[in-house]
Amino acid sequence: MEQSLLNEAIEHFRAGEFVALLDAPEREGEADLLQAAQFVSGPSLNFMIQHARGLITVAMTAERLTELDIPLLKPRFADRNTPRFTVPVDCKPATTTGVSAFDRAATIQALINPNTTPEDFARPGHVFPLAAAEDGLATRAGHTEGAVALAQLAELYPAVVMCEIMGPDGHMAKGEALRRFLTTHQIPLITVQQILAGHLATDNCAD
Q: pTM for this structure?
């Protein structure tokens, strides 16, 4: 699978466009479709639902989720790669049923709005935040941490909407199915390892 250059993907992402993120084969070996949360809208979320077709989640920092009093769900019988899900939420002032693409986009925008309070969110709801590990990619090389790290590299708010890319046959898109998806929609593909390398290079320059 041909990968895009990290810098090109960062510029694409910074402009509010979609990027696909592939994790390591020994983890899921699957790609998620990403968009920076600050750019999400009803139409862009509808595109993810219609074309990527997986579960819509929002990768965020644990610190922000604590501020909003959105607690983690306690894992049971889960493996080590299981994401850190929180209680799902709806933003009450901005939604009706909470499930439409436009309602979910409004809830996502509320999650990153500094004026939002914990009382603005109904629990449970239809948007699934994921808490990134506190040390990021240094301790967990998953889509959640990779997405937040990508937002940081792009100097954007550290919250990213994610949706697993599923093939037309209902299985996760891999190999040729993933290639067709990326080519059809002209979406760059990068890996978690590329983002980790970019972060290490940035840290070394800072030193």
A: 0.94
In 11-21, which positions are buried (b, 16+ CB within 10 angstroms) versus exposed (e)?
ebbbeebbbbb
Q: Which residues contact 42 (CB under 8 A, 6 or more apart)?
A: 100, 101, 102, 105
Tokens of 35: 């968009």
Mean pLDDT taken over the chain: 93
Residue 33, CA distances (Å) to 4, 128, 164, 187, 200 in order: 14, 15, 6, 9, 24
Strands 121-132, 53-61: pairing is parallel
Note the pLDDT of residue 198: 84
pLDDT > 70? residue 205: no
What are the structural domains, with CATH classification, of the chain?
Answer: 6-206 (3.90.870.10)
Amino acid code (one letter) for 52: A
Mean pLDDT calculated for residue range 155-159: 98
String of DSSP letters for 23-81: --TTTT--EEEEEEGGG--HHHHHHIIIIIEEEEEEEEEHHHHHHTT-PBPPP-S--TT
Instruction: State the pLDDT at residue 207.
Output: 54
How many Å apart are CA 88 and CA 112, to the nearest integer? 15
The tokens of 77 are what?
Answer: 């019988």
